[in-house]
Design brief:
Largest sheet: 7 strands, mixed
Strand content: 5-15%
Low-confidence stretches: 383-393
Mean pLDDT: 85
Helix content: 40-55%
Number of strands: 9
Strand order of the largest sheet: 3-2-1-5-6-8-7
Shape: elongated
Length: about 400
């Protein structure tokens, strides 16, 4: 089988999964899919749940994948408890009394009685749990919903379906769940014009979101209630890992230049804005200083750096960040990955030593992590210094 055939089959599988994952979009439909799935999962028709979910999704226009996932409430861990609750609920509804928990009851009660009790109980309990699950899903989505931003996230993450299903799911979850990205695009933090450099861009998530935001604004579809998104003449991403850099190139095309290299030795020329998201703590203290010196030399007077870092004074939330970073490093085989965290005051002092002014704001809303965002600026009267020599983009 040739590479072309294999690639075509992978693309077909990705398109099928994408269609299943995104069908029936909308808060109400997604909540209904969860509720219907829970109801089906409570029914005692084991072996037919998948078929019932598929039929219900087709008939009611719901997301069939989510219906089936919700139906797995009857998994091996919960099924015994669920069946017992249905049996007792059905007995109480039909006769006003629960089954006695004795061996004699099991021996003398006709199987048809147990069957009808379970069926009655499953319909009642399933409807109750289904409505509750649907309401909880709907309310939770309403609490975080921002239609304009979520639409932007959808377009940005959809770029990644051509790379892989995993990349698409990661982009979708990360852009929706991490408050950093919304603040970057909608928080009026970055100046427009000139060049933006995203250091440690990974697969290009931030760049993809910014590209979609710029396109939306040009087309006149940007919501009036939001601050205009930053718009740049050029966007550059720098990434030391080859595979994420390749993904970034694939999803961004000509909208951004992606460099596979080290920002400490890459001269990008004068730039208006720089992003350093979760990068500095991956370096030793002297390396942090070197990178900040390089970036401050590249920034134009009045330029802005956005830096997201963990707050080393954040207690258990900081411990969660540190544990997550260590587990990720171990998972990728980076056994000796160094980490050097600082408190916000220590970071501000560090920025000041490079002639930079910084302000800090919390950036952990909706997450268990102690993250902060620094907006670091070059004073408008500063003059550009000599750039460190190296590879030119």
């Amino acid at each position: 089988m040739g590479d072309g055939t294999m690639n075509a089959r992978r693309a077909s599988v990705r398109r099928l999964f994408y269609g299943l994952r995104t069908e029936g979009a909308g808060d109400g439909r997604e909540a209904t899919a969860i509720g219907v799935g829970v109801f089906i999962g409570c029914l005692p028709f084991y072996g037919f749940h998948l078929l019932l979910c598929w039929i219900a999704g087709r008939v009611f226009g719901l997301n069939r994948l989510k219906v089936y996932i919700a139906a797995n409430i009857s998994n091996p861990l919960l099924a015994p408890t669920l069946i017992f609750a249905e049996l007792q609920a059905g007995a109480w509804l039909r006769r006003g009394a629960f089954h006695a928990l004795t061996l004699q009851t099991a021996k003398t009660t006709d199987l048809s009685v147990f069957g009808l009790d379970i069926l009655t109980g499953s319909l009642t309990l399933g409807a109750t749990l289904g409505v509750a699950a649907g309401l909880v899903t709907y309310v939770s989505m309403q609490g975080t919903a921002d239609d304009a931003y979520l639409d932007l996230v959808r377009h940005a993450s959809d770029r990644y379906i051509t790379a892989s299903i995993t990349a698409w799911e990661f982009a979708r979850g990360k852009l929706r769940g991490d408050p950093l990205y919304r603040e970057t695009v909608c928080g009026a933090l970055l100046p427009s014009g000139g060049t933006l450099v995203d250091i440690g861009c990974g697969g290009g998530l931030t760049l993809a979101l910014l590209a979609e935001a710029q396109a939306t604004y040009r087309e006149g579809r940007w919501p009036a209630a939001c601050s205009p998104p930053p718009r740049f003449d050029r966007m550059i991403g720098i990434e030391t890992r080859s595979r994420p850099a390749a993904v970034a190139r694939q999803v961004l095309g000509s909208e951004a230049s992606i460099v596979h290299g080290d920002a400490r030795t890459t001269d990008v020329g004068p730039c208006r804005a720089v992003l350093l998201f979760d990068v500095l703590h991956m370096l030793r203290a002297p390396e942090q200083e070197t990178l900040l010196a390089t970036v401050s030399a590249a920034l134009e007077p009045g330029g802005v750096m956005l830096i997201r870092e963990a707050d080393a004074s954040g207690g258990w939330r900081f411990a969660a960040v540190r544990l997550g970073n260590r587990m990720k490093a171990l998972a990728f085989g980076h056994w000796r990955q160094p980490f050097y965290f600082r408190t916000p005051d220590q970071w501000l002092a560090c920025f000041s030593s490079h002639g930079l002014a910084g302000e800090v704001r919390p950036m952990s809303a909706g997450t268990p992590f102690a993250n902060v965002l620094f907006r670091v600026t070059v004073p408008a009267h500063a003059s550009a210094t000599t750039h460190l020599p190296s590879q030119v983009v």
